[in-house]
Structures are given as structure tokens and as C-alpha cells.
């Protein structure tokens, strides 16, 4: 599936979502004005509309319904549309479509750039849709050269301007035999992928796999077995507190008393690094092991300067 086709699916979702409820006639009018309408059609053909509608539900879990009692108005069903990850993904494509259709706004709307790896997004979504294994050549920051593997992609996630894909892997060079890297569920950053291609081999997604549950105790994408979620409690300055209130670091965030915040999250390196961005405006209260780690770092910094 070409990226342009995926953009058309997003266009349909965004058109209906932004209107709340919309008639087929109005959808046709907006399609006639859309830059995605390369054929210059006066409206979205009926068969094409339902093909897009079905694709949106199959690929994104977004259900488009028709309220016939209200005169045949289409709307986005609540089921599945409230996922924060899905909303973020849709917003990125919707913004790009909006910029394409409003050329006079180019240069006036800025958003974070994801410099590498995005060229593989469409291929991976295709692989997940068809449950097909992908062949990957990957080179981590520690590797001196790329290695090859097969992956059954389970889900994708974006974190701090990097796309990641999680899936079951097996080393293609050994024909699937267990090796040092083994057969396991692992996470890979798309900006370190050297080459990616679909295979004809299919897999079955485990019925009990839940992407949100898998990352539930994580701040970002790292889920090392040596880390377990625990209560982390900090005190921040009055100046920093509004930033945490308006943009929580994790869905478990609470503020039991003014300027004191807690999370039930694994104390992984990425979470600790995020806490460090507050500098002297943040004091770790608990757990004691994390408080000692911050105290030791403060001593090293003091000695350095």
C-alpha cells in the first residue's frame, strides 16, 4: 500500500471527525476540493467510499457509522477512537493533509521533525495488517555492522521523535534456529533499520497480546526485565508544577498534595533522564534508592564545577 493511499484513509477519518456528523453529499464536496483527489472526481465514488471505510476499521480500529434516523449522517463511533496513541498518529497525518490543502499556511505551522525511519511506516503497517513477517537488516549503536533477522511485528510506538516497532524475532541467517539473539519479543528503533522488506511468510498475533498493557508500566519504550513498576514520589517547584499538571509524564500520575507528584512506573533510564530535566527544581522523595542516585549525581556535578 502506498503512503498516498493511507493518507486518503486518514483524510476520510479527519473529514468526518472534524464535522462531527456529515452527509455523503458534503463528503463528496470536500473530496472534490481535496488535493488527494488526483483524478479530479466530483465526489468520492460509492464503492471507493465503502472500501476506504472498511480499510479504516480494519487497519486503525476506527468505526465509521451511519445515523439513518438523522438522514444518513456519518460519524466516528466512540469505540477505539479515544486511544491516545491512535489520536496522535491521526493528528500527524491530518495536519499534513491540512497543510497540503492550505498551501498559503506553509511555513506558518511548525511541528517536531522525526528525521529517520518514517519511510518504513507504511510497509510495517502493511505487514501488521496482513500478519506477514518482515525481513530486517538492523544496526544498533553498539554494532559494528548490520545483522539480519525476521520479525513478526506486533505493534509500533513513537517516543521522543523516534519510531519503534515491537515484535517476535528470529535470526534469518540461521533459518529460525535459536541463536545468541534467540527467538524473542524485542524492540527496534526504525532510525537504525538499514533495510526492510515484506516476506510471504505469515504469523498469528497472540490472542493475549495487548500493546497498551505491554507498555503500561513504562515511561517510554524501554521495558527491561530488571526494572519493575514502583511508586516514585517527587516534589517540584511551584514554577514547574503547572507543566506536569498540563502534560503528565505517565497515565498513573497523581498530585496528592500541591507540587508533590507520584507515578507508578519503572525507574528506567529514560524516565530518570526526564526527571533530570527539571534540575534543581525537583527533589526525589521516594524510593530511597532513587533519591540516593540523584544525591550522588548532585555531588558529582558539584565537584565537577
Short characterization:
The protein is an alpha+beta fold and 305 residues long. It has helices spanning 3-19, 24-33, 46-60, 84-101, 121-130, 211-214, 241-246, 269-276, 288-304; strands spanning 64-67, 73-76, 132-138, 147-159, 162-170, 184-189, 193-202, 230-236, 254-257, 260-265, 282-286.
End-to-end Cα distance: 55 Å
Side by side, the strands of the main sheet go 6-5-4-3-7
Q: Which range best describes the helical content: under 10%, 10-25%, 25-40%, 40-55%, 55-70% or over 70%? A: 25-40%
Tell me the overall shape.
globular
Q: Uncertain regions: pLDDT < 50 for 5+ in a row?
A: 172-183
What does this structure look like?
The protein is α+β, with helices and mostly antiparallel strands. 34% of the residues lie in helices and 25% in strands. The protein contains nine helices and eleven strands. The strands form three sheets. A five-stranded antiparallel beta sheet has the order 6-5-4-3-7, covered by helices on one side. Strands 9-10-8-11 form a four-stranded antiparallel beta sheet. A hairpin with a 5-residue loop joins β1 and β2. α1 crosses α3 and α1 crosses α4. The chain starts with a helix and ends with a helix. About 4% of the residues have low confidence.
